[in-house]
């Protein structure tokens, strides 16, 4: 019904679905900035004011934005910067330097990157000349020469700030904070990190130069707000090409959020984490099922997506093991039970397995030692068992001590789900005394 | 089964060709395709695909990429021993050799991202680019920052790029300490028995009927399925043993329909194959030639354990074995000629249940080795340099292992690293009954 209407009035349905994918994928995958940051108004105001003071009045500042992964640190900073860039005064005044702890793994690389992004004079044709020390003095001179009134303010953004604290002597951090503290060119240093104890990583001299201004992004989300967020993330904007389709889509999203079973699913996700990233993963999986044949998201889609997200990977891997490998795991489980988590070697596991075979007097699984060794090594490759001591080459393979990386519950659950599991193996796993 | 895949934005004919090449993997391919979306749309920054060996991970991804002609690069992490090689391959296949030559001698991730950004601003792509890394578990051992950086590459280079990681190991074992961008997890389940049968039967011999071949595959699975579910291994075994299976038919003794007779003929052969070819004891070439001689008459690799050693080296090794597998408190009872009275109850502790042959060899000091050596060698031996050099050459032959640190010159500790069969063979050559001296076998 809805399909035909859309077709008559406006764009064909395929086009609309295409647009939906384009818009929502940009939102979920590319972390497109929302029009208005939600739930962080106070932090937003704080940061905007701070950066504005640097940009307009030439005040030097330093601040750390701290929050768990996926809590919207980069989003907050970017939306503040977007807001600032709309003011012409700031736009022509402020210089920005973006560094990332993952990329700039030591001070030399970071320094080259800074000179490159500031487009300083000694850069010719994108090649930086001079040694590390020269570069540093040059940069510091350039910063020192400036003062509050005449020089342009510089904004340093340090993503993954905690990784910068691992650099040798923390030279870069020391110099940046030092410039921020003394009356030189106005700089603002903004660090983004997910470590709450990041200040403990700093050296004393660096710590004393830091302004100790921290913005925490700790989510105080309630479940109704979470539902609201899901709706916002899924709904289409007002300027969508086909108004009618957008209306229908948004109405469908609203009904989805009010659905009982969908709410249960979302509650489960809310209980495990409240960040944007895990929500986006879930919604992305839902979105991928939307097609011309099924032009809206149903609670069943949400349920399937959630099942994919929450699936136990180890159980999935256990499902694909051969019966011999499964028997070895059960033997290991028994050894763990009897000897209370002491490490074991192949000989012991084989011995335990042989005991089972003797009891059963069943020659079906009577494999030779090398075949069992091959199965054992396959388990080691899958990292379901790990060497107890790191050094591996020193002992013979069959005497190397190993630990099982699975727990009791996982094994029993996998056994229940195992296709065509022989009954005697199941019983053996159940029995407390092997 | 063909024609199940449907997705707007891709050519229907190409999709049909894709689904023909992916038997029993339509669901996974369809899911991957719907996650990837149309070529010009954004894809999720990183996808992590896990599943058992030979469950079609790389095959599905590669066929999709090739047939749909998406811009992609497939990198094997085994080959990329340094990150420079990885970066070079990515840049080479996305932007050509000019870009790859821009990389400095030992590039950092920063260099790579800078050049990538530069190139995308020059040659922007309308389609999603894919970086496929095989055996991604090796990325953990590379630079600490490499994996987190790859996972959020889309954000770092500001391009429509997606990284697909393929691995046998679950994602939980990849996650770094401080966390990272979580990829989208996709599981490729193992093939069920019916699916294995379906795939294996597809490669039938042209001169025999399909039922004949599938009954052969059925028998093969009956023997090997409990041990091995690796499709590639099974394919290899199927190809190797088929000639033996159709031998009676070719000779005219049995008709194609007499399954039971065929089964009786092949089953012992397959059981033998599990102990030999499956373990790579004999190579597949040897296995194929074996038909003329008696099967199994050929000695495998592990049968060649006999090693020629000098007389004293043999005794040194025997002494080392005794020192490793006997507790030190029993030495007096075994090796001192007139040891006086030792209570049997004291000597054999009844509650000691676990045998030393289960726990493995124990380390022992050099002094104990020499003491046992002098006691088991009947003639008088002077502790010359040659004796000591024989000990160290046993270490280099990996018959003994040095347990303590290399720099410890006085009182080094050793372990014996040979099996019981090996040492019994050695002691037989010097007429020494080793079982009599082993605590475990009293």
Automatic annotation (TrEMBL), chain A:
InterPro entries: AAA+_ATPase, AAA_16, ORC4, ORC4_C, P-loop_NTPase. This is Origin recognition complex subunit 4. Its main location: nucleus. It comes from Xiphophorus maculatus (Southern platyfish). GO terms for biological process: cilium assembly; DNA replication initiation. Component of ORC, a complex composed of at least 6 subunits: ORC1, ORC2, ORC3, ORC4, ORC5 and ORC6. ORC is regulated in a cell-cycle dependent manner. It is sequentially assembled at the exit from anaphase of mitosis and disassembled as cells enter S phase. Interacts with DBF4. Interacts with POLQ. It is found in: Nucleus. Belongs to the ORC4 family. Keywords: ATP-binding, DNA replication, DNA-binding, Nucleotide-binding, Nucleus. The keyword DNA-binding applies. Residues 59-220 form the AAA+ ATPase domain. GO terms for molecular function: ATP binding; DNA replication origin binding. GO terms for cellular component: cytoplasm; nuclear origin of replication recognition complex. Transmembrane segments: none annotated. SUPFAM superfamilies: P-loop containing nucleoside triphosphate hydrolases. Component of the origin recognition complex (ORC) that binds origins of replication.
Automatic annotation (TrEMBL), chain B:
It is found in: Nucleus. Residues 213-280 form the ORC5 lid domain. The keyword DNA damage does not apply. It holds the Pfam family ORC5_C. The keyword ATP-binding applies. Its main location: nucleus. Component of ORC, a complex composed of at least 6 subunits: ORC1, ORC2, ORC3, ORC4, ORC5 and ORC6. ORC is regulated in a cell-cycle dependent manner. It is sequentially assembled at the exit from anaphase of mitosis and disassembled as cells enter S phase. This is Origin recognition complex subunit 5.
